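DM between two lab members

TW: hey, do you still have the DUF3565 domain-containing protein entry open?
JB: yeah, one sec
JB: this one, 89 aa:
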Amino acid sequence: MQQAIVGFHLDDQNHWVADLACGHTQHVRHDPPWQNRPWVLTEQGRKEKLGVMLECKKCEEVKFVLSNPNHTYRRANIKTLLYLNLDNL
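TW: and the structure you got?
JB:
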């Protein structure tokens, strides 16, 4: 599910993380040759990416679980559902 980037922060290992409109986060590392994102290294580069849409993996997981009534996680406890941030779907 596509979500807009609304900000960035560094994690505890100094890797850049995109804050998404849905409330979830996603790493946006620059780690050539595997991940080539030199824009994340500068404030200007990150600023230019605000509003860009990224695929939110957590939202996709929630969407899949909710659309599959027999899925094991459909019967998950409330802590798991809150972690997946259902309110922002």
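TW: got it. The chain is about 25% helix and 20% strand. The first helix runs from residue 43 to 49.
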